[in-house]
Amino acid sequence: MTGRLEIFGVKGIGEITRGTDLATVIAGAVELRPSDVVVVTQKIVSKAEGRLVPIDDSDPSERLALILEESVRVVRRRGELVISETRHGFICANAGVDLSNVDSGWAALLPDDPDRSARRIRDGLGARLGVDVGVVVSDTFGRPWRRGVTDVAIGCAGIAGVVDLRGTHDDRGRVLQATEVCVADEIAAAAELVMGKAGGIPVAVVRGVDPSWLRPGSVAEEIVRPPAEDLFR
Amino acid sequence: MTGRLEIFGVKGIGEITRGTDLATVIAGAVELRPSDVVVVTQKIVSKAEGRLVPIDDSDPSERLALILEESVRVVRRRGELVISETRHGFICANAGVDLSNVDSGWAALLPDDPDRSARRIRDGLGARLGVDVGVVVSDTFGRPWRRGVTDVAIGCAGIAGVVDLRGTHDDRGRVLQATEVCVADEIAAAAELVMGKAGGIPVAVVRGVDPSWLRPGSVAEEIVRPPAEDLFR
After folding, report:
1. How far apart are CA A136 and CA A187, in angstroms?
2. Which of A85, A139, A157, A161 could be joined to A222 by an S-S link, Cβ 3.0–4.6 Å?
3. Residue B232: inside a domain, yes or no?
């Protein structure tokens, strides 16, 4: 950890449509420094990647069919609320299918491979600005047992998913147990605090993270818990 | 939301023992401004409140007995790992019983009423510094389906637990669905990024949160999901 973080939303991102190069847009909107982490919401990544499908949003059965198509398994269901597992291994409401902040008649699906999405943005920022940054693609998930949604990482590049502090010592010299910290999720949550939900600020910068966290990272490989070690599948 | 947050760890907190007045210690270590949110780790709150019990930590059965004593229900168990529900309604590993960053031969239990703990610190800071701040008591929890721990709020005062954005509109004028954001958890997660796990920095300040979030808050009332609406009990 470091002593101080600065987190700010990036204004002026404008409308994102299929084919928009997000790195170009972000590079034009903010001055980045080495070791900054850029957090980009899933919504604009999905739009840029053309992950929009037409939907009659007055018809709940059409919405449900789409959710089931995006799911590999339904985990829980109550009325219109479906908690399911996506192909990526995320367990979330509605398989990540989202009707907010998209035009009426359309639904946004999750990116095919959000780690790859993050890598593309990171590579593009490196090429355009000559800086080495981390990128987190964030989405808003609920969770069991606790009310309210929080933002989590669905993809990352150039920034660790999980930082393993096992084997380091606490302030008594005792070896720490169970201290694999999911810094990518904490960075996504922190960024949400300056983004809000109304859709105006889809990009934020987290400046000042521990430089040792800036390494190749992957949500799929580091954060998604394999079924065999999961007590809740 | 606002445009910019600053997050920094508070140095010089020193050793906390039973009866330490945390507000006095914090007030002596950092200059606070109105609307700052002070995040305090459970560990020092438990120490100040004398929530330490002697334990033979070479004896796993003694540790297990203590965990079960602190639980109202075991949710999952695999070997030495116990996920249980505490009296507070938290579902977490080992009922929050923690052996790290305490002297050998002792275990730290969760505060009796972490919202009350937060209120006391907040009231004390108000009395000593004349500033109105929010206080979050944080702890480190695992979660289903995702690897790595993150910090969450177990108590809060003067800052919202959950901010309800339902009924506000997205950037298409459509009413937003499912947008109760758990800002207290996001603030706890953000603070962890400057604290690390080694125990040296048990207090952090989050400066710049949306002023409308600074209102009486409660983890117990706002964040702990009542069993009737919980799909995962």
Report:
1. 8
2. A161
3. no
pLDDT, tens digit (0-9, with 9 covering 90-100), for B130-154: 999 999 999 999 999 999 999 999 9
Same domain, A89 and A115: no
Cα–Cα distance for residue pair A153/A88, rounded to 1 Å: 12
Q: What is the CATH number of the domain that holds B104?
A: 3.90.1660.10
Radius of gyration of chain A (CA): 18
Flag whether residue B154 sits within 8 Å of chain A, measured between CB atoms.
no
Helix axes A22-29, A114-129, angle to 10 degrees: 50
A residues 122-141 closer than 8 Å to B (CB): 140
Q: Are A192 and B5 in contact (CB under 8 A)?
A: no
Q: How many CB atoms lie within 10 A of CB A61?
A: 8
Q: Do B104 and A174 touch (CB under 8 A)?
A: yes
User: Cα(first)–Cα(last) distance of chain B, in Å?
Assistant: 33
* Each residue's pLDDT tens digit, B208-233: 999 999 999 999 999 999 988 888 87
The interface predicted TM-score of the complex, written ipTM, equals: 0.94
Span A71-119, pLDDT tens digits: 999 999 988 889 999 999 999 999 999 877 788 899 999 999 999 999 9
pLDDT < 50 positions in chain A: 1
- 3-class DSSP state of B212: helix
Q: Which residues contact B156 (CB under 8 A, 6 or more apart)?
A: B115, B118, B134, B135, B136, B137, B184, B217, B218, B219
Residues B14 and B28 occupy one common structural domain: yes
Among B residues 59-78, those touching chain A with beta carbons less than 8 Å apart: 76, 78
CB of A57 within 8 Å of a chain B CB? The answer is no
pLDDT at residue B173 is higher than 90:
no
Whole-number average pLDDT of chain B = 91
Sort out which chain A residues have CB atoms less than 8 A from B180's CB and list them. 147-149
Are B154 and B219 contained in the same domain? yes
CATH number at residue A196: 3.30.1330.100
